[in-house]
Each structure stands twice: as structure tokens, then as C-alpha cells.
């Protein structure tokens, strides 16, 4: 893997866009990334991790990666160009973050997104824009997770120093994250679960066997079978061996089967005797019941013989009553027909009273009246139409008056609209002239206002520049003083270094400088300057430099803003001069005080604004007036047209009224001349004379020429009289027809009655009435006769039955004696049956328990063997077995092998960095007596041949060893992930604890890491590293966010 380019925007401490050409930095092979604490050195490495894994190391969340210094509209993006497995890729990734809404107020969440591209055939091609799909592609190519990548590529020295001094359990947690041992842990867990399940299964089988044998003992104790020779009373059955237990169960099964056979024979004998006694008792009871039925039948026949005469009289009476019932309907029908004829005759006579006594036929009269209905219908229609026309005439007259008034109003409105339009047009001309003047004054007022504001800003900025210049000078002097203090402390420490080393000498132990165990003349101890004091002083220098940087930035910013403000004043002076000259407005000198002219111009401009503000309203008023004139003209024309239409309609109504009157008079004359309705005689008077004074509402010619009301009254009278005569004729015809029909019905009813009397042998209707019975009496008589016949038939049938005849001939038996014998036999059979049921229940339960015992005994042996094997294997892989002499878990054993390989690879570099004095070793002694050991590390001192703990290493030794351990771990992970080479590595911090010689040795090792084209980036804020590594990436921290610059090569920085 090789990194080529990194671009980060609004990421971490970087407010803007930072671009690093890592390909350019790789030209020197080794470069330094340095900057103040918190400036963002590690954030550059976090950006690489985020681009590849969508996450960063440590506890930070991806939602906090956005720079707090960035502008609200600046998107957060990381772009990483790299080569993986021979493929040139580009990853563009953005985290989720909050941004202002594009519409409205508040914020919204910008969702995370990614784009993966590959450089193929001279151009970039998109592989994926899905987060999950991109993660799969990168994981396949990298072959490791984020934690592994951080330790292989980033080499964080702080983490490896902690790993060096960690306990076995802490190392186990780290190694489990780096090396996949989940399969081995799964084996441990699987065998542990299998052991628990096997032991539980064995215990359950033994418990089940004990339960079955216990229930078997209880069952056999309640039976009447003698098993004392087979079962010992004080020995539980589950204590027997499985084979002995099965043999005993089979013997008991045989004894119970024999006992069941004996009981079954007794049951069969008792049931047979009980059945015989029960059958004898039932036969005797049935015979006794037959004898009793025969005696009851004889008694019934004797009683019926005594009532024979009465029974025959009732039968005759019932037959005559039934014959009368058949004749009664004909009598009622004849009487109803006679009554109906009488009523119809009266109705006919009443209807004929209003008709002529000697005249034409009723049917002919009805036809003539009907023929003249249409003439009267025409007269009535014309009368109704005339009424409507009379009502319409006043309305048409009023409509003419209304339309004339509307025309007058429209003419007045048209005159007013034209006058208003002329006035608004004049007002619009005045507003247009005021707007032209305002357009000339507005640019001048705006420029004068800006010029006055700019001059005030220039005065304020001049004061600010003087203040920031003083602060910058003071900060510069503070930096110089603190740098001089650091040099003094470093010199003092060098002067007293011999005394400090002398205080660490111990008689008999090797000197850390020369290695001699003898110390003849140690330097005297004096007041010493500690490294912490020097580091504190350096920190104060960095703080002072940061203050100086901020003061410098503020001074430069103030000076820049002052220059911009002065330039703006000059531009505004030229603008004001040009506007005054072009418009010849006022005599204004832009170089003089502008407060007076500006006030005058503002007042004049305010007045013009008020006038010009009316422009839209005036334009709308002009348009409104024009529309009003148009509407008024249209309204006047429409009102004139409507008036003409109303006058035409009035003339039409007058003409239609005259025509309708003429048609109405003609219809009335036609009816009077041809209709016979006037010749009918009313029941109480003389017939009216047509057209005479005696006929109310008669249609005479003088009346018809007088009013429409008189014509309507004449029509109403003619229609009423005509309908009355027609109705009287219809009633007379209907009454005559009904009388004929009812007479025919009477003749038919009397004929049927005579036939029914003859058939039933009755003389007349009175004889029928004498023989008839009411319905209730008839039903009671029928019931008495039927009951008598039924009782005699039933008694005769009983006496004719063969069983009854035979029973009455046999002798009687004692039923009580037979009942006692049957009950005794039944009780004896029940006792024996209960013994048999009990024995069968015991037999069934014993069979179930016997099968359970056989099944459990068959399972017990294999279950015990399986539990023993699984327990032995689980104890072995979990380190609790005596066969595991190291007492080490399987997963720990695998991690120990990985740790041994890491130590081998680390020692290859540690020998050079430590001058061959010491090396690392793997120690598994901690596993003895501990549950999770076997991952210990020790230091083997090759000069003294002693083994010492890693906590005995000094600060420089600890860093050197940690670096070697980091490189060894990186090599081991590369081997684990398929041997992929990483062309870019980073070493993060830790160099401050090295002396000059150790630093040289470490840098030599890092220099050898560049073999094969590998690029090494060292992250450190140690000052000495800047002089040793010329190619540098400098990270600057400011209040506006961090920035990056590159020295020692051609920079490509934004």
C-alpha cells in the first residue's frame, strides 16, 4: 500500500482545505510532521483512517469530526489517493454533520456519503457510491481492520509502551483485537458448553432412573402379589447395576402376568353366574306384567258393555249433526243474495230520479256528454292562459319603467367616470417628474453616506493598528526572553550531568556509561536541572510563540483592513465628484465636511420618496379609471338594449291577450250549442235556460266583451254543470248493471239450497237448524264417541296377544326371592372385577415403568462415556486439566505463538538500536497458577546474561524497545494478512526521551526501513528532530483554525 495525496476540508482543527502531496514527500524517504500540541498533527493521520474506514482511532465519534472553525456552508470532506494491491484508487468521504437549512431557520443533518474511484485506462472510473459496498472493497484489499491498520501503519509509540509494561490479561485484550482467534475461543466455548450439557444429560438420566425405580417400588408395595423373595425391603432398586435391575424387572413382569391370569378366570365365572340370575329375574318380571295387562283389558270391556245403549244414541245424533253442517252454507248464501238484490234496487231508483222520464237511451246520453269534454277542456285551457296574460301585463309595464331609470343612471355614471380619468392622468404626470428627480439624488446620498462611514472606519482602524503593533512588539520580546531561559537550563543540565549520573551508581553494579562495576571517583552532586524543568521551559516558549503568532496575525489583519478602508475612501471621493458633475445637483466638495449637505439632501430625498411612493397607486388609479369608463359605456349600451326588449315584450302581451279572449268565447259558444247537459232535470227544480238569467255565470255576448274575470266565471260554471250531468248518467248506468248481476246471483243460490235439502233429507231450513249443533258441542260429541271406540279396540287387541294369553295360563312365581339371588350374584361379580381392574392397572403402570427403566439403562452407559470424553477435552482447552502442563487456554496458546513471532521480528531491529545489549523474550511462566497467563514479556540483558522485567527499562530504552516492538508487530500482522507490503509508514511521538546516541541509532533503523521505496513519516514536536530531518510538514495553530505548510521539498499546500 502506498499513499499518494491527501486532501481534507473542514476536518478536525482545519477550517479550510489542506492538501498534502505525499508522493512529493516520499522523494526524501523520511519526513517530519511537527507542530504545537493540539495543532492537528494526529488529525492528519485520523483523516487517512477516516477515508479508509469511515472511522478514527480512539473514543472520538464520526459526528464530531467536522471543524468547529469552518464556515457553515463549507462541506466536510476527505479525499485520499492511494495504491492498494496494484490498483490506483481515490476515496472521497464525508461524515454526517449538522448544517443550516437552505430554506427557513434551524439546522438539518447532512448525511454521510462516499465515492470510490479507480484509475483505469488513463481516466478515473467510479466503482461505488454506497458506504457498505465501498467498505467491502477496501476491506478485501487492505486485509485488516482499523485497529490493525493503526498499529501497522501509524505505529503509535504510546500504545506500544503501554503494551510493553502491560499485564498478561491486558496484552491478551490487545492481541485479540489484532489477531483473529475467534475460532479458537469458539472451540473453548463450544467444548465448555458440551461439557455442561453432557454432565447435565448424565445427571438427568440418573435422576430419571431413580425416579422410575422409586415409583416402581411404590407400585409393587400396593399389590397383593407376593414378591418378598424377589425384592429386599431395605435396598433401593436404583442401587442395583443396570443388568441386575433389568433381570429383576423381567422376573417381576412374569409374576404379575401369572397373577393376572388367575384373576381373569375368577372374573369370568362370577360374571356368568350373575348374568344367569339376572336373566331369570327379567323373564319372571315380564310374565307378571303380561298377566296384569290381561286383567285390565277384561275390566275395560265390562265397563263399555254397560254403556252400549247410550253409545248408539250418541252415534246417531253425531251423524245427523254432520249432515246439517253440509247444508248450512247454502242457507246463508241464499239469504245474503236476497238482501243484496233489495239494496241494489233502491240504489238504481235513486240514480234514475235525476234523468229524463222518457228520453234517449242512457248509453247514448253518456256518449254525447263525453264527446263535449274536449270542447270544455279547450275553454278551460284558454281561460287559464288569459289569467296568466292579465297577471303579466302589469309586470311588463313596471319593467319598462325600471329599464328607463337604469338607462338614466348609466348615463350619469359614464359622465363621472370620464371626469375622474382625466384627473388621475394629471396626477401621474406629477409623480413621474418627482421619480426622475429622486433617481438623480439617490446615488449621491448613498455615496455620501458610505464616504462618511468609511472615514470614521479609517480613524478607528488607525488606533487599532497602533495598539496591535505595541502588543506584537511586547510578545516578540517575551519569546526572546523565554528562549534564552531554555538555553540557560540546557547548559546547566549539561554542566551537572556527571553529578546526576554519579547519584545513580551502586557499588558492584555496572555503570550505565562505561559498564565498569568499580566507581573510584564519582563526580560530586550539585543542584541539578531536571528534564521536566527544561520541558516546562520549552512549553513556555511554545506558548509565547503562539501568543506572538496571534499578535502578529492581529497586527497584519488590522493593517490590511486599514489599507482597504483608505482605498475605499478614495474611490468614494471620486464617485461623489463624478455624480455631482454629471447631474449639476449641488455645489459639494467631497474633501470637506459632508454633514451639512448630507442633511439637506436627505430632507429633499425624503420628500421625493413620499411623492414617488404614490407612483404605483397612481398607476393603478389611472388603469382603474380607464376600466371604469369602459364598464360605464358597456353598462349604458346594455341598459338601452334591455329597454327596447321590454317595450317589444309589452306589445306582445297585449296581442296575446286579445287572441286568447277570442278563442275562449268561441269554445263556450260551441259547448252551449251542442252539449245535452242543460236538458237534465235536477232532483229539486226546473232545467236552466241556456244563456238565460236563471243560469249563474251563463256566457252571454255582453258579458264576454266586458272583463276576463267574467269569462273565467262562465267557464267555471259550464265545467261544473257538465261534470255533474256526466256523473249522474254514469251512476245510473252503474246501478242498473249492478242490479242485474245481483238478481242472477240470487237465482243461483236458491237453486243450490234446494238441491242440498233434498240430498240430506231435510224438509226445509228450519229442520236443518233443529239438527245442527254448535261447533263446541259437535266437537265434544265426536270426542266421546271416538274415545269409546278406541278403548274397546285397545282392550280387545291386548286379550288377543299370544304372550298375554300364555302368561294368564301360567302359575305365578315369587319375584322377591329371584331379586335377592340376582343382587348377590352381581355384588360377587363386582368384587372380583375390582380385583381384576386393580391388577390390570398395576400391570399397565408396571409395563410403562419397565419400558422407562429399560430405555434409561440403555442410554446411561453411552451418556456416561460421552460425558467423560467431553469433560476431558473441555478441561484440556480451558487449561484446567492435568494433561495441560502449562495450564494455558487454547486461545492464549495461539496468541502466545503470535507473541513469540512478534518478539522474534522485534529483536531483529532491537539488536541494532540497543547496540546488542539486550533483547525481548516471551515468558509463559505467568500462566502457572493463573487462569489467563502465558503472554508475559521480559528483557534479556545480553551483557550481564540476566533476565529483568520490562518495567526496569529507562525512558530511552523503553522508547527504543517499544519502537522495535511496534515494527515487529507490524511485520507480524502483515504476515497474518497475506504479506502485503506498506509503502507508507508513520511513527507517532516518543523521541523526546532519547539521548543523542540513541536517537542516532533509532534514526538509522528508520532509515533502513526506507529500503524498497518505503516512506516514513515521523510525528513529533521534539526540537532536535527538526535539525535531523530536513523534509518537514509543519502544522500551525491559530484562532481561526490550523493550517499546514511543507518545507524541504516543493510544497503543494492549500
UniProtKB/TrEMBL annotation:
Annotated region described as Disordered, given as residue ranges: 676-702
GO molecular function: ATP hydrolysis activity; exonuclease activity
Entries under InterPro entries matching the protein: P-loop_NTPase (IPR027417), Rad50/SbcC_AAA (IPR038729)
Coiled coil: none
Pfam families hit by this protein: AAA_23 (PF13476), SbcC_Walker_B (PF13558)
GO biological process: double-strand break repair
The keyword Lipid metabolism is annotated on this UniProt entry: no
Residue ranges constituting the Rad50/SbcC-type AAA domain according to the UniProt record: 6-208
The entry's keywords: Exonuclease, Hydrolase, Nuclease
Keyword Repeat: no
Family assignment from sequence similarity: Belongs to the SMC family. SbcC subfamily.
Subunit structure: Heterodimer of SbcC and SbcD.
Protein name listed in UniProt: Nuclease SbcCD subunit C
Source organism: Janibacter cremeus
